[in-house]
């Protein structure tokens, strides 16, 4: 399990590198548009969880703190949880990246947001939603100002 845990990051780190450090490269966008970027960690998760599904399924169906803590407290459980984080953080990070590019948000602004999404998934995602809302509000205000100026000139 140590080796799987240690190497699992290699499945996702190239994609995070592209999104954070080469966000405007055409091939970064092309690569990240494919949902298949999440396939490798998802398949690894599947391969890890299927053999212990009989143990895991009752815990996730009726979770209790003690049962979840015991599951995650083992090397196998921690590795399964870690790969789960890697897969879903990449899925969310991919969406954040693509959405931010569609909105033409600054890569300088997005780099720390994406880093937070990688490190602390829900925190980075929440920050992105706040940034997205502020950018939309700013764009609406700028549009109203430009519209007001056109109306004053006419």
Q: Shape, please?
A: elongated
Determine the N-to-C terminus distance: 71 Å
Please provide the ordered H/E string of secondary-structure elements: HHHHHHHHH
Strand fraction equals under 5%
Mean pLDDT: 93
> Percent helix among the residues?
over 70%
Number of strands: 0
Number of helices: 9
Report the C-alpha radius of gyration, rounded.
20 Å
* Largest sheet report: none
Instruction: List low-pLDDT spans.
Output: none
Count up the domains.
1
**Class based on secondary structure composition and strand pairing:** mainly alpha
Describe this entry's structure for a reader.
The protein is mostly helical and 154 residues long. It has one domain. It is 82% helix and 0% strand. It contains 9 helices and no strands. It has helices spanning 2-8, 13-21, 26-33, 39-49, 53-61, 65-72, 75-102, 107-119, 121-153. α2 (13-21) runs antiparallel to α8 (107-119), α7 (75-102) runs antiparallel to α8 and α7 packs parallel to α9 (121-153). The longest helix has 33 residues, at 121-153. The protein is elongated and about 55 Å long. The N and C termini lie far apart (71 Å).
């Amino acid at each position: 399990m140590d080796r799987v845990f240690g190497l699992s990051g290699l499945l996702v780190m190239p994609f995070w590198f592209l999104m954070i450090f080469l966000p405007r490269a055409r091939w970064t966008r092309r690569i990240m548009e494919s949902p298949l970027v999440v396939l490798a960690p998802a398949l690894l998760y599947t391969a890890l969880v299927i053999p212990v599904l009989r143990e895991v399924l009752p815990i996730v169906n009726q979770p209790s703190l003690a049962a979840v803590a015991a599951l995650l407290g083992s090397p196998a459980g921690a590795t399964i949880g870690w790969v789960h984080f890697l897969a879903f953080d990449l899925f969310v990070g991919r969406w954040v990246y693509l959405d931010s590019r569609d909105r033409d948000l600054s890569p300088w602004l997005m780099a720390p947001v994406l880093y937070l999404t990688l490190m602390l998934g829900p925190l980075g995602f929440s920050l992105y939603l706040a940034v997205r809302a502020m950018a939309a509000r700013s764009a609406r205000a700028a549009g109203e100002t430009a519209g007001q100026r056109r109306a004053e000139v006419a």
